[in-house]
Each structure stands twice: as C-alpha cells, then as structure tokens.
Amino acid sequence: MAQNVPVRCPACRREQVYAPPVYPCACGAPVVAPLRRGAPAEPVTHRTWLDDWVTVRCGACGRRDRWPRPELGCACGTVLRIPVEGDPAPSHDASPDSAVPGDVTWPGPAHPRTAGGPDPAGATRPGPAHIPLPPTAPVPRPAFQPVAIRTARDAVTAVALYLRWLGYRDVRRADQRPSSGIGLAARGVVAQVEPSVRPATLRDVECLWLTGMTESAVCVYFSLAGYDEDARTRADELDVPLFVLDLAGVPQPVNNPADELIAAGA
User: Where is this region: Disordered (predicted)?
Assistant: First the structure.
C-alpha cells in the first residue's frame, strides 16, 4: 500500500503530508492509487469529468477500476492534484452479455446415452423434457465504503461509488443534462444527484423517470436535502428508487423501490 507523501503547494510554498484515500475493490481488498514520489503537485485550474478519475489496478485480484483522482486542498485555497504512477488506460469491464456459463458436467459415465435412446437391455427409456440446473446463491457484496460529503463534488463521488457497489460499471457523467442537479449514467441505469439544500420536487422525479424510459434504464434519485411529500408519492407510483445522502456519504433508502434495488443490485 502507498504511504503518506509530502506535498508542496506551488502557490504558497507550504508543505503538507498527504494520506491517499483507500477504496474497496469488488473483491473486498483495499485499493490505493500509487502516488508518484518526488513529482510536484499540480494546481487544478480547469476541471473535466475524465480528469477527475484515474484507473487503479487492484494488487489482490488484478482488476482495474476507475476511482477519484487524488487531490489535496491547501490552506491558501489552491486545490492540488497529486501525480499518480504510470499512465493507466480506462478499464474495459466485460459486458454482462459476453459472459458464458461454465460447462455442465453430465452425472455418470463419460459418454451418456442420448435422451430417449435405448438402454443396455434394449428398452427405450424416454428422456426428461427439461433438466433443471442447480440453484446458485447470489455472491454477497462487501460492505460499502463511503466518502464523507463536504462539497457537491463529494456527493457525486459518493453516488458513483454507491452505483458501482450495487454492480453498475463504467459510471460516467450522463449525456443528457438534468434540469437540476447532476446526472450520472452507466449500463442499465441513469441517476440524478441533487447536492443542494433544496428538496427534490415532483417535477424532478417525473423528469428523471422520463429519462429512464427514454434510455430503457433503471432510474435512481439521490438527494442531500430529501424530497417533497408529493415527490415521494409519485416516486412510489412510478417505482423510482429514492435515496437520501447523509454527510458520511452513505445513501439511505426512503421508499420500497430503493430497498428492492439494494437487495437485487444491478
């Protein structure tokens, strides 16, 4: 694991010690971005969505995932971007449609009789119309590791991590900008994050639902200040999962669709 590194602010020349954040890999192992020792920190003067993320490889399972790029806020007001070792390329997670189930082992001899064929005694034995596969238990998810919310960007980061924890991959900024808040998207889901102190309204929920219908995707709403009563009622009617973000960065479900989403995952 990476250790704390000294960081000097190029604006005020103040030196601080930076402790890189630890994120949970899907395998449960902790992941830390490998910092480039001795490289100067760069002040953030312009932000893009891609620049805010970095691909890090898990040392335990080898998986490559996108995590928030290491940053440090100096007391002088400058935001510093901490250099990371290497130039990692974006991760390419396998599509769910490309998964191929494992071979089914036929119980008994290496060369079984064809269903409906003759047995050794010469009698014809009808084969079963359907051979059910044994049930498989869902793989339990590791505990969610939250990110404390201090800014609107922290709220977006917390929701992106939560969607990934639910099983959605390649979370990105949504192509269609919502009327309020910030939109996120991944394969099979669209999410809206409202990081302001304004409760989400009925119109907000309905607009998100229409976006989900257009994209043929599940729609999920995350709000820092909660929801109006009519917004919650309408979300229940439309089966829109609603979550409230606490300052610890843990989304709390506020209706039954949200509970069902947590139980089922992606």
Answer: 87-130
SS3 at position 63: coil
Q: How many CB atoms lie within 10 A of CB 253?
A: 16
What does the H/E/C string look like for 217-235? Answer: CEEEEEECCCECHHHHHHH
Instruction: Scan for tokens 């089914």, then name that residue.
Output: 104
Which pair of tokens denotes residue 168?
């959605």
Q: Secondary structure of 171-209 in the HEC alphabet? A: CEECCCCCCCCEEEEECCEEEEEECCCCCECHHHHHHHH
Cα-to-chain-centroid distance, residue 72:
23
Amino acid identity, residue 12?
C
* CA 24 distance to own-chain centroid: 11
Question: What pLDDT shows up at residue 102?
Answer: 37
